[in-house]
Design goal:
Length: 275
């Protein structure tokens, strides 16, 4: 290599260095500084969300989305500063996102359902809910699944897409819950006396609320009994105990007052005659 070639190579290197070193330095500075700043920002966001009323399960997800989005934007900005064409990169990213979305559309529907549940809070951990034919206590809510403990000690794992698209009954949203019960008495019994006995029995149960006052009335007429409905109220947390206690108290009270609760019966009339 002669002197002229060396000088020409040096000039090319100097030109490249002059054009790209400032961009490289700026890009590297922006990358390192931005990466550090995004980390600090997401930690600050995490603390603020924990102090707010945002569902705790949602906080790590929101922070992760914020961090990923900001860092992706940072990388695109650095690439643009270095003179790298970002249009094709963004197009490839969009195509990849569509492909992933099509492959995971079921999971994405559960994910979207989880976001809806965590934001709008139709129920929370500890609530007793009914979704379709599944009823139980909510044990946990994640972005993809709601986990319910059923009364027979089984665990139901429900995809949030199914939960969000179904009718959900929340039995513990209110502080008080009504208990719907009924009992049948014989047709020859005094209805007013039976209602008074039932009322006194309900008021004797400590976990039955006096306010609202229990409703007691004739529900209908069966084949062998007059059916009386009684609707006491209890705290939602006491519902199960109050349900059994009310039934037991009413049965004992009716027995003590000799009010008959008949078995199903049928009258048979026999006519004698010649064939």
């Amino acid at each position: 290599m002669n002197k002229e070639q060396i000088q020409e190579s040096f000039e090319v290197f100097a030109s490249v260095a002059t054009n790209y070193l400032p961009k490289l330095a700026l890009g590297l500075t922006l990358l390192l500084g931005g990466w550090w700043f995004i980390g600090k920002l997401t930690r600050w966001l995490d603390k603020k969300l924990k102090l707010s009323k945002v569902e705790p399960t949602l906080i790590p997800f929101l922070c992760s989305v914020a961090k990923f989005s900001l860092r992706l934007l940072l990388l695109v900005s650095v690439a643009s500063i270095l003179g790298i064409a970002t249009a094709s990169f963004v197009a490839m990213l969009g195509a990849g996102s569509i492909a992933i979305g099509l492959a995971l559309q079921g999971s994405l529907s559960h994910f979207a359902g989880g976001i809806v549940i965590l934001f709008f809070k139709p129920f929370k951990v500890g609530d007793v809910i009914e979704v379709g034919d599944i009823k139980g206590t909510v044990q946990s809510i994640t972005v993809l699944y709601t986990i319910i403990s059923t009364p027979d000690d089984n665990t139901a794992v429900l995809p949030n897409g199914q939960v969000a698209n179904n009718k959900v009954l929340n039995y513990t949203k209110e502080n008080n819950r009504r208990i719907d019960l009924s009992v049948g008495i014989a047709y020859n019994q005094d209805i007013d006396k039976a209602k008074k006995v039932i009322s006194d029995a309900l008021h004797s149960v400590p976990i039955i609320l006096d306010d609202p006052e229990p409703f007691i009335g004739v529900l209908g007429f069966g084949d062998s009994s007059v059916n009386i409905a009684f609707r006491p109220y209890a705290k939602s947390v006491d519902y199960i105990d109050a349900y059994f206690a009310a039934n037991e108290a009413v049965k004992k009270a009716l027995d003590n007052h000799k009010i008959e609760m008949p078995f199903p019966q049928r009258d048979v009339h026999i006519k004698s005659g010649k064939i």
